[in-house]
Structure formats: C-alpha cells, structure tokens
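Researcher: Hi, I'm a grad student and pretty new to this. My advisor asked me to get structures for two proteins we've been looking at. I'm not sure of the right format, so I'll just paste the first sequence and hope you can take it from there.
Model: That works fine. Here's the first sequence with its structure tokens right after it:
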Amino acid sequence: MAIEKVREYFKTLGIEDRIKEFDVSSATVELAAQALSCELAHIAKSLSFKIEDRTLLILVAGDAKIDNKKYKAEFATKAKMLNPDEVVEYIGHAIGGVCPFAIANDGVKVFLDVSMKRFSTVFPACGSSNSAIELTCDEMEKYSHCEKWVDVCKAYDDTLSE
C-alpha cells in the first residue's frame, strides 16, 4: 500500500508521526479541506504530466489551476496530464493520494508551484485517499526532492496569506 511506503520514507526522517489519517475521504481538495478543517488553498494538490518520455509531478495550492501559457513557457510544450493508470504506474500512488514522497519511478521530476508560498504550511496527501501531512514550504522542498519552484498557475488569490 502506498501510504506504508510514504510512512517508511517519513520514518527515515523521524516525522512519520505527523501523518494524519482520516475516517473520511480526503481524495479531493474539497474533501481534504473538510477533513483538515482548513481553507481549500492550503491543500497541496498534486498534478501529474507527461512530456514525451518524462513524467512531471507539480504540486500547487488547492485553489490554483494550471495556466497553459505559463506551463508552456516553463516546459516548452503543451500540458498533457497522465491518465489514472499512468499515474499509478509512474508515480506509484492512485489519484486521491498522489504525493511527491516515496515515488515509484526515480525518473519522475517534482516541481513546486509558487502558489503555495503564500502559506506557512500546506497539506499534501501521503499516498492514500484518506491521509495528509502538514509541512512548511521549506520542508516540502526538502522532502519532495523537487527540481525547483515554478510559476505555472493562475486563478488563485495571491493576496491570501497565513
């Protein structure tokens, strides 16, 4: 089970006890925000893309959407999302629990969108449809082994902050 792999990963960092598991689903941004009693924007939403033979995982704030022009400027191609089977195959987590931790394929490149930098902490999933962990943006960067921060989103309220 993917959450066990994530738990093992966080155990090596000494933070496995910070994983939250819920009796209800947290598989969507809305459900995760309800389970955590937080704003939608604080959920770190994982979006999976394919560029030729490469797989990208981009984490964005829960209220953000991909801006196709910004995405193309950053990655020199049109955004093409993975289908649900490809997400499981390449990332190792099913939709609803996708996260940048304990990824199945070492070739997956992780990026973090600046839409999350508005907050002191955000909540990514932990490999299951009923889990999350609260991390600072610095922790997200460190523990996700991201390539870099990018600006590929629109439709979020950049006046929000915590």
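Researcher: Oh nice, that was easy. Here's the second one.
Model: And its structure:
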Amino acid sequence: MMKPTLVLDLDETLVHSSPRPSPTSSFQIYVRQQDSGRVIPFYVSARPYLSQFLRSMAKVYRIVIFTASRNRYADKVIDRIDSGDYISTRFYRQDCTRGASRGFAKNLSRLSKDLSRVVLVDNSSDSFAFQPNNCILIKSWYGVGEDTELLDIIPFLEILATCDDVRSILSRRIRK
C-alpha cells in the first residue's frame, strides 16, 4: 500500500521569515522582486523541531509543501529546510484559490490523490475551504518563543497514517 500524503504549509507553519534580521534566524536567502528586479534579503527561522518532524513524517508519509508563497521565495526556503530530501512535491501561490476573506484556499484534489489518505497541516483556516475534513489547524509561529507544536503533533499524525480514511477522524475534531 502506498504511503498517505502529508501536505504542509510553509510560512508560520514550518518557518517564519522577515526582511529584517532576527537573533533567531536559521539562515538567509535572497529573492529578486519580479517587478523591480531589486534583490531582497529574507532572514528565515526554522520552527523548533522541524528537522525531527520532517524526518519522522517521511517514514510514514509522502510529504508535499503547499504554500501561498511565490515559488521564487518558497523554493529557496524549502531547499534549505529539506536537507534530508523528504519533500517530494511543491505547490505555490498560483496553485491556490483566492478566498473571499483575501486568504488563499488549498484545493487538495490538485494532488490527484485519494483524499481519504491526504492530511493538510496549516496555520490558516482559510486554506481549508475545499476539504475541511482533511485538515489540521496548527498554531501560527512567528519565530520567537518556546514552541513544541511540530513535536506534539507527531504521535497523532503517526496514528492518522494508519487510517483507511483520515476524514473519519478529522471530521470529528473540534475546530478552533
């Protein structure tokens, strides 16, 4: 049987980035603005336990990044955080649908997978518009403070990976 698919948001779920230096920055990338051609530095902080989380989840899931960020930024960040080559596929802003609240919705059917075996972890409930019963809302992380969200969610995701239909479990969870 094929592994289920774990879809992860990028910004404020796995990393936080800012054009201003931060003492918690893990690395720096440079992104050329499409309109002006100007190069902007971004100081990126990896969420605590990110490497451990990706390593653990890659054992039981096929990992996909689905971000509302543009690919010229996202690819540079993903290349840096994915040192173990755990992430198999990437979706970007152009793959999202703009929602009524100005947020971006992520239609998981774009993955062309059986949705009974797909889980999305995201910090924005706007992302859940199309398949709310496939989603787990995680607290936003802005690069500071103690945080164990990724570590804490591992046991639950490991259990979900064994389910025939993740929606049977996730549809019963209380939404924030």
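Researcher: Is there anything I should tell my advisor about the second?
Model: You could mention this: The radius of gyration is 16 Å.
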